Protein backbone atom coordinates (compact mmCIF):
# COMPACT_ATOMS: atom_id res chain seq x y z
CA UNK A 1 0.00 0.00 0.00
CA UNK A 2 2.81 2.34 0.79
CA UNK A 3 4.53 1.68 -2.50
CA UNK A 4 1.36 2.40 -4.49
CA UNK A 5 0.90 5.60 -2.61
CA UNK A 6 4.43 6.62 -3.43
CA UNK A 7 3.79 5.91 -7.10
CA UNK A 8 0.74 8.13 -7.03
CA UNK A 9 2.74 10.93 -5.51
CA UNK A 10 5.41 10.58 -8.18
CA UNK A 11 2.78 10.71 -10.90
CA UNK A 12 1.29 13.85 -9.41
CA UNK A 13 4.72 15.43 -9.21
CA UNK A 14 5.40 14.69 -12.87
CA UNK A 15 1.98 16.03 -13.81
CA UNK A 16 2.63 19.24 -11.89
CA UNK A 17 5.97 19.64 -13.59
CA UNK A 18 4.43 19.11 -17.02
CA UNK A 19 1.70 21.62 -16.32
CA UNK A 20 4.27 24.05 -14.98
CA UNK A 21 6.38 23.66 -18.11
CA UNK A 22 3.30 24.28 -20.25
CA UNK A 23 2.47 27.40 -18.26
CA UNK A 24 6.01 28.66 -18.69
CA UNK A 25 5.81 27.90 -22.40
CA UNK A 26 2.50 29.75 -22.66
CA UNK A 27 3.88 32.65 -20.67
CA UNK A 28 6.96 32.70 -22.88
CA UNK A 29 4.77 32.71 -25.99
CA UNK A 30 2.63 35.53 -24.58
CA UNK A 31 5.74 37.57 -23.87
CA UNK A 32 6.93 37.10 -27.45
CA UNK A 33 3.52 38.10 -28.78
CA UNK A 34 3.48 41.14 -26.51
CA UNK A 35 6.92 42.14 -27.73
CA UNK A 36 5.79 41.72 -31.34
CA UNK A 37 2.69 43.79 -30.70
CA UNK A 38 4.80 46.45 -29.01
CA UNK A 39 7.18 46.58 -31.97
CA UNK A 40 4.23 46.75 -34.38
CA UNK A 41 2.69 49.63 -32.40
CA UNK A 42 6.03 51.42 -32.28
CA UNK A 43 6.38 50.99 -36.05
CA UNK A 44 2.82 52.25 -36.58
CA UNK A 45 3.51 55.28 -34.41
CA UNK A 46 6.75 55.92 -36.28
CA UNK A 47 4.90 55.69 -39.60
CA UNK A 48 2.23 58.10 -38.35
CA UNK A 49 4.92 60.58 -37.34
CA UNK A 50 6.59 60.17 -40.76
CA UNK A 51 3.26 60.69 -42.53
CA UNK A 52 2.56 63.82 -40.49
CA UNK A 53 6.02 65.16 -41.31
CA UNK A 54 5.52 64.37 -45.01
CA UNK A 55 2.11 66.11 -44.98
CA UNK A 56 3.61 69.15 -43.27
CA UNK A 57 6.47 69.28 -45.79
CA UNK A 58 3.96 68.94 -48.64
CA UNK A 59 1.83 71.75 -47.18
CA UNK A 60 4.88 74.00 -46.82
CA UNK A 61 5.96 73.23 -50.38
CA UNK A 62 2.48 74.00 -51.73
CA UNK A 63 2.46 77.30 -49.84
CA UNK A 64 5.90 78.14 -51.24
CA UNK A 65 4.77 77.30 -54.78
CA UNK A 66 1.63 79.40 -54.29
CA UNK A 67 3.76 82.36 -53.18
CA UNK A 68 6.08 81.89 -56.16
CA UNK A 69 3.11 81.59 -58.54
CA UNK A 70 1.55 84.70 -57.02
CA UNK A 71 4.83 86.57 -57.48
CA UNK A 72 5.04 85.46 -61.11
CA UNK A 73 1.41 86.49 -61.70
CA UNK A 74 2.10 89.89 -60.12
CA UNK A 75 5.19 90.28 -62.31
CA UNK A 76 3.18 89.39 -65.42
CA UNK A 77 0.52 91.93 -64.50
CA UNK A 78 3.17 94.59 -63.94
CA UNK A 79 4.79 93.77 -67.29
CA UNK A 80 1.42 93.89 -69.06
CA UNK A 81 0.55 97.19 -67.38
CA UNK A 82 3.95 98.62 -68.35
CA UNK A 83 3.47 97.47 -71.95
CA UNK A 84 0.00 99.04 -72.13
CA UNK A 85 1.35 102.28 -70.68
CA UNK A 86 4.26 102.26 -73.15
CA UNK A 87 1.87 101.81 -76.09
CA UNK A 88 -0.36 104.60 -74.79
CA UNK A 89 2.63 106.94 -74.49
CA UNK A 90 3.81 106.01 -78.00
CA UNK A 91 0.32 106.58 -79.42
CA UNK A 92 0.10 109.96 -77.68
CA UNK A 93 3.52 111.01 -79.00
CA UNK A 94 2.54 109.85 -82.47
CA UNK A 95 -0.70 111.85 -82.41
CA UNK A 96 1.11 114.96 -81.20
CA UNK A 97 3.69 114.55 -83.97
CA UNK A 98 0.95 114.14 -86.56
CA UNK A 99 -0.83 117.28 -85.36
CA UNK A 100 2.42 119.26 -85.45
CA UNK A 101 3.33 118.08 -88.95
CA UNK A 102 -0.16 118.88 -90.22
CA UNK A 103 -0.04 122.31 -88.57
CA UNK A 104 3.21 122.95 -90.47
CA UNK A 105 1.49 122.23 -93.78
CA UNK A 106 2.07 118.52 -94.25
CA UNK A 107 -0.90 116.55 -95.59
CA UNK A 108 -1.78 112.86 -95.47
CA UNK A 109 -2.60 111.97 -99.07
CA UNK A 110 -1.23 108.50 -99.98
CA UNK A 111 -2.29 106.83 -103.22
CA UNK A 112 -4.59 103.81 -103.28
CA UNK A 113 -1.77 101.27 -103.56
CA UNK A 114 0.05 102.63 -100.48
CA UNK A 115 -3.20 102.77 -98.48
CA UNK A 116 -3.84 99.10 -99.16
CA UNK A 117 -0.37 97.55 -99.34
CA UNK A 118 1.13 99.40 -96.38
CA UNK A 119 -1.46 100.90 -94.03
CA UNK A 120 -4.35 98.42 -94.31
CA UNK A 121 -2.18 95.29 -94.60
CA UNK A 122 -0.06 96.26 -91.59
CA UNK A 123 -3.22 97.02 -89.60
CA UNK A 124 -4.73 93.60 -90.41
CA UNK A 125 -1.47 91.89 -89.41
CA UNK A 126 -1.40 93.92 -86.16
CA UNK A 127 2.03 95.32 -86.96
CA UNK A 128 3.19 98.68 -85.64
CA UNK A 129 2.67 101.58 -88.04
CA UNK A 130 4.69 104.75 -88.28
CA UNK A 131 3.19 108.14 -89.02
CA UNK A 132 -0.38 107.89 -90.25
CA UNK A 133 -3.49 109.99 -89.82
CA UNK A 134 -6.04 107.18 -89.64
CA UNK A 135 -8.48 106.78 -86.76
CA UNK A 136 -10.11 103.59 -85.51
CA UNK A 137 -13.88 103.89 -85.67
CA UNK A 138 -16.08 101.01 -84.56
CA UNK A 139 -19.22 102.19 -86.40
CA UNK A 140 -18.27 104.24 -89.44
CA UNK A 141 -21.52 103.42 -91.22
CA UNK A 142 -23.70 103.87 -88.13
CA UNK A 143 -22.77 107.55 -87.73
CA UNK A 144 -23.76 110.52 -89.82
CA UNK A 145 -20.87 111.50 -92.15
CA UNK A 146 -20.80 115.05 -90.80
CA UNK A 147 -20.13 113.75 -87.28
CA UNK A 148 -17.23 111.66 -88.57
CA UNK A 149 -15.72 114.62 -90.42
CA UNK A 150 -15.95 116.82 -87.32
CA UNK A 151 -14.29 114.14 -85.17
CA UNK A 152 -11.51 113.76 -87.71
CA UNK A 153 -10.81 117.50 -87.83
CA UNK A 154 -9.40 117.20 -84.30
CA UNK A 155 -6.57 115.25 -85.95
CA UNK A 156 -6.29 116.71 -89.44
CA UNK A 157 -7.51 119.70 -91.36
CA UNK A 158 -9.85 119.61 -94.33
CA UNK A 159 -12.97 117.66 -95.20
CA UNK A 160 -11.32 114.28 -95.84
CA UNK A 161 -11.14 111.63 -93.13
CA UNK A 162 -9.46 108.20 -92.98
CA UNK A 163 -10.84 105.46 -90.72
CA UNK A 164 -10.08 101.83 -89.90
CA UNK A 165 -13.27 99.89 -89.19
CA UNK A 166 -14.78 96.40 -89.05
CA UNK A 167 -18.37 97.60 -89.38
CA UNK A 168 -20.30 97.03 -92.60
CA UNK A 169 -22.59 99.42 -94.51
CA UNK A 170 -26.21 99.66 -93.37
CA UNK A 171 -25.81 97.13 -90.54
CA UNK A 172 -27.32 99.78 -88.25
CA UNK A 173 -29.29 102.93 -88.94
CA UNK A 174 -27.09 106.07 -89.03
CA UNK A 175 -27.70 108.52 -86.18
CA UNK A 176 -29.56 111.71 -86.98
CA UNK A 177 -27.60 114.32 -85.04
CA UNK A 178 -24.76 116.48 -86.34
CA UNK A 179 -22.75 119.12 -84.57
CA UNK A 180 -25.10 121.94 -85.57
CA UNK A 181 -28.51 120.55 -86.53
CA UNK A 182 -30.62 117.46 -87.08
CA UNK A 183 -30.99 115.62 -90.37
CA UNK A 184 -33.10 112.73 -91.52
CA UNK A 185 -31.43 109.34 -91.09
CA UNK A 186 -30.03 108.02 -94.35
CA UNK A 187 -28.30 105.01 -95.86
CA UNK A 188 -25.40 104.15 -98.14
CA UNK A 189 -25.69 102.95 -101.74
CA UNK A 190 -22.94 100.95 -103.42
CA UNK A 191 -20.94 101.57 -106.56
CA UNK A 192 -18.84 99.20 -108.62
CA UNK A 193 -15.74 97.51 -107.18
CA UNK A 194 -12.42 98.31 -108.87
CA UNK A 195 -9.07 96.55 -108.52
CA UNK A 196 -6.17 98.39 -106.88
CA UNK A 197 -2.62 97.68 -108.07
CA UNK A 198 0.68 98.29 -106.30
CA UNK A 199 3.88 97.94 -108.31
CA UNK A 200 1.96 96.08 -110.99
CA UNK A 201 0.30 93.54 -108.66
CA UNK A 202 -3.25 93.48 -107.34
CA UNK A 203 -3.32 94.23 -103.61
CA UNK A 204 -7.03 94.84 -103.07
CA UNK A 205 -10.23 96.46 -104.27
CA UNK A 206 -11.96 99.79 -103.68
CA UNK A 207 -15.64 100.65 -103.84
CA UNK A 208 -17.47 103.97 -103.86
CA UNK A 209 -20.40 104.39 -101.46
CA UNK A 210 -22.71 107.42 -101.58
CA UNK A 211 -24.80 108.65 -98.67
CA UNK A 212 -28.50 109.15 -99.34
CA UNK A 213 -30.94 111.05 -97.15
CA UNK A 214 -34.62 111.93 -97.69
CA UNK A 215 -34.61 109.90 -100.91
CA UNK A 216 -31.76 111.83 -102.55
CA UNK A 217 -27.99 111.55 -102.80
CA UNK A 218 -25.93 113.89 -100.65
CA UNK A 219 -22.37 115.11 -101.18
CA UNK A 220 -20.94 112.67 -98.61
CA UNK A 221 -19.06 109.74 -100.10
CA UNK A 222 -16.82 106.95 -98.85
CA UNK A 223 -14.19 105.02 -100.77
CA UNK A 224 -13.88 101.69 -98.97
CA UNK A 225 -10.68 99.67 -99.38
CA UNK A 226 -10.27 95.98 -98.59
CA UNK A 227 -7.38 93.58 -99.10
CA UNK A 228 -7.70 91.03 -101.89
CA UNK A 229 -6.20 88.53 -101.40
CA UNK A 230 -6.60 88.87 -97.64
CA UNK A 231 -3.97 87.37 -95.27
CA UNK A 232 -4.96 84.05 -93.67
CA UNK A 233 -5.57 83.37 -89.98
CA UNK A 234 -6.36 86.93 -88.93
CA UNK A 235 -7.02 86.94 -85.19
CA UNK A 236 -10.23 89.02 -85.14
CA UNK A 237 -11.10 89.16 -88.82
CA UNK A 238 -10.15 91.73 -91.48
CA UNK A 239 -10.09 95.50 -91.15
CA UNK A 240 -11.45 97.87 -93.79
CA UNK A 241 -10.10 101.32 -94.59
CA UNK A 242 -12.60 104.08 -95.33
CA UNK A 243 -11.80 107.40 -97.00
CA UNK A 244 -14.65 109.79 -96.22
CA UNK A 245 -15.03 113.13 -97.98
CA UNK A 246 -17.51 115.83 -98.93
CA UNK A 247 -17.85 115.89 -102.69
CA UNK A 248 -18.24 119.65 -102.71
CA UNK A 249 -14.77 120.25 -101.21
CA UNK A 250 -12.82 117.29 -102.61
CA UNK A 251 -13.76 116.91 -106.26
CA UNK A 252 -10.49 115.28 -107.34
CA UNK A 253 -11.25 112.17 -105.27
CA UNK A 254 -14.48 111.51 -107.13
CA UNK A 255 -12.80 111.99 -110.49
CA UNK A 256 -10.30 109.23 -109.67
CA UNK A 257 -13.05 106.59 -109.56
UniProtKB/TrEMBL annotation:
Domain spans labelled NAC? 102-247
What PROSITE patterns does the record tag this protein with?
Answer: NAC (PS51005)
Report a single Gene Ontology molecular function.
DNA binding
Query: What InterPro entries does the record point to?
Result: NAC-dom, NAC_dom_sf
Keyword line: DNA-binding, Nucleus, Transcription, Transcription regulation
A single Gene Ontology biological process assigned to it is: regulation of DNA-templated transcription
Q: What is the lineage of its organism?
A: Eukaryota, Viridiplantae, Streptophyta, Embryophyta, Tracheophyta
Q: What is this protein called?
A: Protein CUP-SHAPED COTYLEDON 2-like
**Is Transcription among this UniProt entry's keywords?**
yes
Q: Pfam families, per this entry?
A: NAM
Superkingdom is Eukaryota
Amino acid sequence: MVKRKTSTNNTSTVRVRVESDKDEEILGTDKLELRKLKRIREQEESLKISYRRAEELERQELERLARVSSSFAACRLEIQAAEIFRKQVEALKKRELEKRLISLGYTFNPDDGILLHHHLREKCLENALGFYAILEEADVYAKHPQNLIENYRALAAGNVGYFFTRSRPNETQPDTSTGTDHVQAGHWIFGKELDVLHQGEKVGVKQLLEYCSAGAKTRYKIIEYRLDPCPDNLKDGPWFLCKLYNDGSYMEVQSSL
